[in-house]
From TrEMBL:
Keywords: Membrane, Transmembrane, Transmembrane helix
Lineage: Bacteria, Bacillati, Actinomycetota, Actinomycetes, Micromonosporales
Domain of life: Bacteria
This protein's name: Uncharacterized protein
Transmembrane spans: 159-178, 199-225, 231-250
Record organism: Micromonospora kangleipakensis
């Protein structure tokens, strides 16, 4: 029995015509990734100021504590609220999502949710009574009856560091996708062509070097941050990975220059 051949794609079946790999669209993807990354990086200075103010803040007066989450939270101080911990509702590997419930009219109602790193999630249990500390409406710590304090991902400098690493990783997509579009365009029939060679692992050009310097430290720096390790370990891993990226870029650039027919 002869094997049936696949019918060629029709004009409207763009997903079967390698639509997403057109050089013009690769440039567009890069611009979108870069714009999102720059927007994230623009929030980092505010995050640093917020982290410093949070760590220096005192607790709010007891009379300012909210009973309902819809009420505007107090500003400039740490709000303490008795809660019941519920979860984990969503485990994403390094860390989990927990709900904070408060009692109203004999029933437990949802008050807030927070992401807790892996090390902290292991110290929490479902239906445990605790006190939550909130900074301007955002849960930043959970204090258990035994005096154990579990910090969330929003506490202190963790928040802006996570934004920094995610922004760096997004910005790395800009030079990487520009380089992909450049290589694709060499063998395609124009910016809107689907023809040309597939773009896989790319030569370490100057654009790819910039992408590596942004992507490698940000990816590896996120690992200890999301695991809930101390910030000293986050700094060590980020600096070591930056050094590794610099070494790889220098070695790769030397190898490209040493090729008689290679281009950067």
């Amino acid at each position: 029995m002869s094997r049936r051949t696949k019918a060629p794609p029709r004009g409207w079946q763009f997903w079967r015509r390698a639509f997403w790999t057109r050089p013009a669209l690769l440039v567009l993807y890069g611009m979108l990734a870069g714009a999102l990354g720059l927007l994230a990086l623009a929030d980092v200075p505010d995050g640093i100021r917020d982290a410093v103010a949070m760590r220096r803040a005192v607790e709010c007066p007891a009379w300012t504590a909210r009973v309902e989450p819809d009420v505007d939270p107090p500003k400039g101080c740490l709000e303490r609220i008795p809660v019941t911990v519920s979860g984990p509702w969503h485990s994403r590997g390094p860390g989990s999502d927990w709900h904070l419930m408060v009692e109203q009219d004999g029933e437990f109602v949802f008050f807030a949710e927070t992401d807790v790193p892996t090390s902290g999630s292991r110290r929490l249990s479902d239906d445990a009574e605790a006190e939550a500390l909130l900074w301007e409406g955002t849960p930043v710590a959970i204090e258990l009856p035994a005096g154990d304090r579990v910090e969330t991902e929003a506490w202190g400098h963790r928040g802006w560091l996570q934004t920094l690493f995610l922004g760096m990783f997004a910005v790395s997509g800009l030079p990487m996708l520009f380089q992909a579009a450049r290589l694709k365009l060499r063998t395609a029939n124009g910016w809107w062509s689907v023809r040309g060679e597939k773009v896989g692992l790319m030569v370490l050009s100057p654009l790819m070097g910039v992408a590596c310097l942004l992507a490698i430290p940000s990816m590896l720096g996120l690992v200890p941050l999301m695991l809930g390790l101390r910030l000293q370990w986050v700094a060590v891993v980020a600096l070591l990975s930056l050094g590794l990226a610099i070494y790889a870029v220098i070695r790769g650039a030397g190898a490209v220059r040493g090729r008689p027919d290679g281009e950067g």
